[in-house]
Amino acid sequence: MLNKFAVLLVLFLSISTCANALELDMSVDEEIKKKYNSSKLEYEVLPNLPNVTPSTSVPKVTPTYTSSIPNITKIDKKEAIKIPSGTKFLVRSNQTISDWSKEGGTVSFTTTSPVYKKYITIPTGSKIYGKIKDSHRPQITGNGGLVEIEITSITYNNKTYEVDGKVTKANNKKIFFNNIKGKRRYWYNVNKHIDKGEKFYQKSRNVATKMSNNPILILLSPIPTAVGMAGYSVCTVLSPITAIGTKGGNISLPAGTDFELKLLDPAYVQ
């Protein structure tokens, strides 16, 4: 009965509020009609607004990848300037490089400092190109992801020349055998599985402690401890095997990451 009364009271208050709002709205409307000509109100009272044409221009967006390498310029080595093998370039990537990168895909870099050699200076802002030679995602053997980049060309004086190079540093870390690798987590995963066994043992000890404080369960208190020790031992023994089924670390180097590149053979430009 009380609930029905509350519902009726709410309905009555809502109807009263709407009626008052309607009466107020009508009184305001009458005041406006007395002061203004409603037929001219739209044109005389409101200010003239400028015609606005919606913009159809699309903002320019810098691409995060390079779709192709510029055409290679053929040269006569006898008339060209030689850049010796072992020359290193400090560069930044122009796109994200990760273990999702497809084999055969093109990547590009921009030099961040000039390179001075005999008869030639490679200025800051020069473009260097490469191809993804190999890549794969983290593997269940504990191996991390992999990206291998082959440096293939460099642009100098608005012309692109063939080179042969590799990556020696990525994100200020040394790269061996031109393989950018994710963290190998095999031993990390081994310790992780041992830690699980240790946590299980600690829980069983806590259960045993609670049982030992109970006069009825005190005789059974050693059982959880024994179970916990058995579980800990099993996790420790099997951890080298179970860790094989877990993956290593990913690779994801965003655009703007610092790299060091090195020429494996002499390069020739004009």
Report a brief summary of the structure.
The protein is α+β, with helices and mostly antiparallel strands. The chain has helices at residues 2-35, 41-45, 186-212, 222-242; strands spanning 81-83, 88-93, 97-98, 106-111, 115-117, 120-122, 127-136, 146-156, 159-170, 173-174, 179-181, 252-253, 258-263, 267-269.
Total beta strands: 14
CATH superfamily of the domain at 83-184 and 250-269: Type IV secretion system, VirB10/TraB/TrbI
State Rg.
Answer: 37 Å
DSSP summary: helix tally = 4
Structural class: alpha+beta
User: Helix and strand string, N-terminal first?
Assistant: HHEEEEEEEEEEEHHEEE
* Mean residue pLDDT: 78
Describe the fold and architecture.
This protein is of the alpha+beta class. The chain has helices spanning 2-35, 41-45, 186-212, 222-242; strands at residues 81-83, 88-93, 97-98, 106-111, 115-117, 120-122, 127-136, 146-156, 159-170, 173-174, 179-181, 252-253, 258-263, 267-269. Strand 8 (146-156) and strand 9 form a beta hairpin. The model is unreliable at 1-29 and 38-66 (pLDDT under 50).
